[in-house]
Amino acid sequence: MTEEQTYPIAGPGVCPKCGHKERIGQGLIDQLKQNGNIDNDAFPNGLAWSVPLHDQNKPIMVSPLSIIKPKIPVLSICFDVCANPDCLYLYITKVNFTWEEINIQMPPPQMPPQGPNLRDFFPHLKG
Ligand SMILES: [Zn+2]
């Protein structure tokens, strides 16, 4: 029996290969935030690869009247590249497992196709 893993798992705070503290991805994100190109709360985990662990063969049942959004399990692998130009080592900075709400897009109500309006062709027909 294995103990249940708790998340998030923090990776090394520095490059595991050379010990350099700076990361290229985080550096760019900080710079873009400083310049106002992206919001301060954007990219809270730096660079992250999110993998939904949802079984595609298992449909998500949602009642249209329900206000509770369905949740699916998501594994997030946060990574970055060492900013030491002699290293550029790609490493994991954090691993997280969460249940995330998903938005299910309801198809818009179907409108009957609009035929040409006769008045567009015969503008003299008034009323
Ligand atoms: Zn490094």
Largest sheet: 4 strands, antiparallel
Number of helices: 2
- Which class do the helix and strand fractions yield? alpha+beta
- Which compounds are bound in this model? zinc ion
* Global outline: elongated
| Helical residue percent band | 10-25%
What are the secondary-structure elements, in order, as H or E? EHEEEH
By DSSP, the count of extended strands is 4
Percent of residues in beta strands: 15-25%
Give the termini distance in whole angstroms.
Answer: 81 Å
Average predicted local confidence, pLDDT: 87
- Tell me the count of domains: 1
Give me the Rg, rounded.
Answer: 25 Å
The unreliable regions are none
Written account of the structure:
- With 127 residues, the chain is α+β, with helices and mostly antiparallel strands.
- It has one domain.
- Helix content is 12%, strand content 24%.
- It is built from 2 helices and 4 strands; from the N terminus they run E-H-E-E-E-H.
- Strands 1-4-3-2 form a 4-stranded antiparallel β-sheet, with helices on one face.
- The protein is elongated.
- The mean pLDDT is 87.
- The protein binds zinc ion (ZN).
- The site of zinc ion has 8 residues, from loops.
